[in-house]
Design brief:
With about 180 residues, the chain is mainly alpha-helical. The chain has one domain (about 5-170): AhpD-like (Up-down Bundle), CATH 1.20.1290.10. The chain is about 75% helix and about 0% strand. The protein has helices spanning about 5-10, 15-25, 30-45, 50-60, 65-90, 95-100, 105-110, 115-130, 130-145, 150-170.
């Protein structure tokens, strides 16, 4: 199971996605843990069984057990937070944004890995899930922790490419008659 298997599974019309996927792991400015945690968290966020299986299979070679679990936790907690905070933001009534969420999210405070890495994974998942409030919050935290805009941009590119891979492969799995 691997990134190469995903590249091989992409159809010819997705050549750009295939090339982008290949460059993600060969030109990274992120640490190995940041890179593979981002890949794993975003794969989970796509909900694509094939992408999750392929990425998690290879990520296990690069991540400690703690980091592997933390990346999964980032995808899990942001699945909840992105819905809640995106909704309170989109409603447009400031009163909702000042109300306590009263949702448990202790994993954010104690993720089992470096906080900046976990926050980076939360940022990437928030990009896939489309939560502007969470994107702003997590970007601010990772920038204050010393990550560069280029590292944030790379994280967003990983989310974009992994999402495109999942969309393409899921579409290819459905018979279209063409």
């Amino acid at each position: 199971m691997s990134i190469d298997n995903l590249k091989d599974a992409l159809p010819a019309y997705a050549k750009d996605i295939k090339l982008n996927l290949g460059s993600l792991v060969t030109t990274s400015q992120l640490t190995e843990q940041q890179l593979w945690g981002t890949l794993l968290a975003t794969a989970i966020a796509t909900k694509s069984p094939k992408v999750i299986a392929e990425v998690s299979g290879e990520a296990a070679d690069y991540l400690s057990a703690e980091a592997f679990t933390a990346a999964k936790a980032a995808a899990s907690i942001m699945a909840m937070n992105n819905v809640y905070y995106r909704s309170t933001h989109l409603i447009g009534d400031e009163a909702y944004t000042t109300m306590p969420a009263k949702l448990r999210m202790t994993v954010i405070g104690n993720p089992g890995v470096e906080k900046v890495d976990f926050e980076l994974w939360c940022l990437a998942v928030s990009a896939i899930n489309g939560c502007g409030a969470c994107l702003e919050s997590h970007e601010r935290v990772v920038r204050q922790a010393g990550l560069s805009r280029e590292q944030v941009q790379e994280t967003l590119k990983i989310a974009a490419v992994i999402n495109a891979v999942a969309t393409t492969l899921e579409a290819e799995a459905v018979p279209t008659g063409v």
